[in-house]
Amino acid sequence: MTKAELKKVHVVEKILEGYMTNAEGAAVLGMTQRQVIRLKKNYQTGGAQKLAHGNRGRKPSHALADEIKERAVTLYKEKYHGSNNCHFAELLAEHESLHLSPASVRRMLLERGIKQAKQRRRAKAHQPRSRKTQAGMMWQIDATPFAWLEDRAPAFALHAAIDDATGIVVAAVFRPTECFEGYSRVMQQGIWNYGVPLGLYSDRHTIFRSPNETLTVEQELAGEVKPLSNFGKAMADLQIEHIKAITPQAKGRVERLWRTFQDRLVIELRLLGITTLEAANAALPPLLEKHNRKFAVCPRESQSAYLPLDPSLPLEHVFTKREYRQLGSGHTFSYKKTLYTLGKPTELRLSAKTTVEVRETLEGEVLLWMYGQAFTLQATDRPSRDPVLTPKEKAGSAQPRKPTKDHPWKTTYDNNITKRNTKQRSFQDAMYSQHNSYPEAFW
Questions:
Q1: pTM of the model as a whole
Q2: Which residue, of 147, 230, 233, 405, has the fewest CB within 10 Å?
Q3: Using one digit for the tens of pLDDT, what is the confidence trace for 71-124?
Q4: Where would I find the Integrase catalytic domain in this sequence (predicted)?
């Protein structure tokens, strides 16, 4: 019997012996007098054991069958290993039509000595930041390398962007490494599906910022602006405020997204039998929809802050690699060891040595960007020179040159001949006055 039940037995015995009244016993046990009278009758008919709970030692009618428990544990070991309790319960309901609560799953796994694959640790205290009030006010973007396909393929990086107000993953893409193309693909997908956000939160990777963006006081006084990376120039073209966080906690929304993806997305890709990066990208959109249905929240304000995309500004011409070249004669310039010229005759008239902007799209197309529009280019052949027909002449040996008489090598440090002759004559006159004749060394 429990301590509470032993206390009931003790109080009922005191009442039956006449040391306590029903009202006093009810006050001690926290019951009504009617309940105390019922306890007295049970004690008189069945003794102290009658006061114990009637279902003690009996299996509950709604208890899980042993066959179901064994089946769930076997499925976890063979198919769903590595998933947490909540995710495991969802997968059983989705794929096995076995509806169990996360608490039941946790209990049956602990009975077999199976603990969580990832132990939770106490999080550090950081000042929380409230979500934005409207969808589209700010996105958070980041990338993380991980073994998303476990041992079925090498590790690669997942690029993703999440809306701060709703928690919706607006876009994601797998790439071999963290790169400019991955972030550009994410931004393109998100803008096509939702619109242009007002702001973007990222880390301080050199993809997002130029290493020479810190200006000196003299440069600021001279009116120079901070240089931008290719990604920063794209954000400036789209009028997106780009904020670069100093600490990971500042963009905690996307940092916590990686913990969820590394816990759930790995299991989902395993169940789909994905073995390559290309197949993982193909299977990613429905998995993102499933994630958003479960974890997305409603914003505080229903009005959206997204801006429509300007139809005159194609995204494939915005997210590009940009460099500058000087035009040669015939509107030609060299880019990546290839000579380019204008592909179609246009009214564009540029003189030689004009500096132009060259853009290379994500698909590898090279464009000439002038006056806010793109001009197509075509590769041309370089003039070939046969080294046999036009041999290079080697420079001959230079003729020896004889220094002049007034060269510093032939004179003293004082190159003024008049002063030098005057000093020499004064010295000779002094020697003559002492010896009445010039010494033999002077002749």
A1: 0.69
A2: 405
A3: 898 999 889 888 888 998 999 999 998 999 999 999 888 888 888 766 666 666
A4: 124-316
Over residues 321-337, the pLDDT tens digits come to 999 998 887 778 888 88
- CB 146, CB 262: distance < 8 Å: yes
Same domain, 167 and 270: yes
Give the residue among 1, 3, 31, 305 at the shortest CA–CA distance from 15.
31
Amino acid symbol at 122: R
Q: Are residues 266 and 150 in the same domain?
A: yes
Look at residue 103 and tell me if it is in a domain.
yes
84 in a structural domain: yes
Q: Which residue has the tokens 């050199």?
A: 206
What is the domain range of residue 76?
66-111
Give the Cα separation of 169 and 161 in Å (integer). 6
- Show the DSSP H helices in 222-365 as ranges: 230-237, 252-271, 277-295, 315-318
Residue 272: inside a domain, yes or no? yes
Reduced to 3 states (helix: H, G, I; strand: E, B; else coil), residue 132 is coil
- Provide the token pair at 302: 């229903």
Report the phi/psi class of residue 364: left, alpha or beta, with left for phi > 0 and alpha for psi in -120 to 50: left
DSSP 191-223: HHHT-B-SEEEE---TTTS-TT-PPPHHHHHTT
Residues 256 and 330 in one domain: no
Judgement on whether residues 207 and 102 belong to the same structural domain of the protein:
no
Question: Helix or strand or coil: residue 432?
Answer: helix
Radius of gyration of the CA atoms of the chain, in A: 43
